[in-house]
Amino acid sequence: MRPTADRLPGRRMGSDQQHASSIGNQIEVRPPTPRAGEIELEPASMPSFADGIRVPLPKLTSQRLVGGIVVCALTLLYMSLWWNRFLGGGSDGVLMVIGQKLLRGETPYRDFFMVIPPVMALKFAAMIRIFGSSIRAIRAVGVFDRVLLSLFVYIWITRLFSTKSAAIGSILSIIIFSGDIADVVEYYPADVAIWSLAAAYCAANVIDSAYMNRRLGWAILSGALAAIAALTKQSTGLGVLVLLPAVSGVLVFRFYGLRSALKTFAGFGIGSAVPIALAATWLARIGALSAFLDQVFKEGASSKGSLAAALLRPVVQPLGRGKCEASIAALVLLIAWLFWRYGVKSTAEYQGPIAFHAIAGLCIFIAGMALIVILGTHIGFSARTPQLVVAMISLYGSGAVSVYSMFRCFKRSFNKRDAQLLLLSSFSFVTAYLVGMSWTPYEPMALPGIGMLICLAMSRGCSRSETWRPVACGLVVAAFAVIFFAVSFKLFLPFKWTTWSDRPVFFATKTSQLAALKGIHLPADTVDSVERITDLITSYSRPEDRIFVFPYLPLFFVLSARMPALFAIVHWFDVAPDRLCREEAGRLLQTRPRIVVYQEISSSMLLDNEIEFRAGRPSGQRDLINAIKELTKTYRLVGSVKPWGGNPINVFVRDVR
Known about the structure:
Number of strands: 9
Low-confidence stretches: 1-56, 347-357, 372-380
């Protein structure tokens, strides 16, 4: 039996297909026959609108299948170059400690401080249960996540663009996404991106489905996946949870009427309510619901600064002293628009929506603001600059495309392809902006926006013009040039965060005897340093002893099989609020842990973080540092190891008399 279509209010037509037929008669758009000297674009880049409103899902042709295999293979090849050839001592280990605590029976939020929702904690507890505390095994799961993420981007982009351009855009997106120097492969950015992309793809099917039953099913699934994304990382996930029903509901209303839109909203609500209700019930049963709300949405969020500071960070931070990425990105987009508009003349009428007009106005504004801010200051370039520029292009460009598409939504000629572009561009902009609330510019902001933008540019908004082919070839060359620079940068600096840096992967020729590091290749001096510190911890403490590590070296909890002595696992500026750090300073002096591992941070690093996250006010971390210095006066220094590119790591022991 065929699914029953919903009736549209104010019409006597009995199905969405009849409504589609009536609209199709009004706005039918047929691709023109190519003229002499023109090329025929692939069907995916110029969908058929014969029914007026429905864009059929791209069929799984051999070409698309091969494209997906190539995207996955290249992603795997890229990850294989570095995933197990660095330590990541500056942040790796936090989620592993959280997973270990859950397996020991400790309650999150109540027994220890946790600033993120519980999905990642549960995932790491499950991985440790299966693989043990093996960093290699857990990173291997992270590599699989990256391959899956690149495939999701490719599948979505092929709804609108050709296989070749979608493959290039997907590879560029995933390589820039993974280019973050603080990336330790297995952390939450990839997870929340996967859940968000899956939810957005389901929302795209909501828009395309011609029958209410199908739309409702896709809406329920999209809402559930978006809720899981929100339970993985609150900022990005909540943005997606709000964006998808809002955009999809408006578009369903645009094509199918108010009644269908209300049912679609209800579907999103039902789908999202299930994971949220399950998580809330579990947290309430373990007595952690109130603490969860406080740490994730109130106190914990304050570590990023005030709400206004966090919301404005993607706008203000890129224009800071010595930063050039925003200016370069705006200039690149402005030149691209000028070249597209005036440089190459098409022999055929322009066929597809493109936002370069909106991009131009936005870029002129951003460039003007940036020039005012950096006037009289130096502009800093580094090997990381190309990928940061790409991240900013993704933010600005996807924002401009989404604004332009929103205006087109009110035009009579607005069709399903326009709707899909609106969903993709608005999703790209919102996720980039919310990711940038942590730090801007930041490489994960590029996914999937840069893939969409390069596909738009390569197809010139899907216009049919032989004269654009050289430009498209030039864009391909530029994309691979950026990929080359990003890969090279990652190989030379696989990790750098807080007080820890890793040598280039070419020096990673030795493996450690520590159980947790089996299969991880590291430079010889790094192996010696890590084993020396771990040996000092295990030699001067018992397995049941708890230790304190500062500022951001949680990996030593995992390597030494010792648990943290205080309520928080790490006490860095953007994860530990001031009140917590001041309380932890008092706890440290009272508990007097057996071992204190302390690496001093520079005064400039302390000041920079206070300017960024505390509006220049003294942070609670200062109180904690003073407590450490006071406490270690009564301890014995048993070892000091200087890692590559960082201050010495000192190991203090409290003598038991």
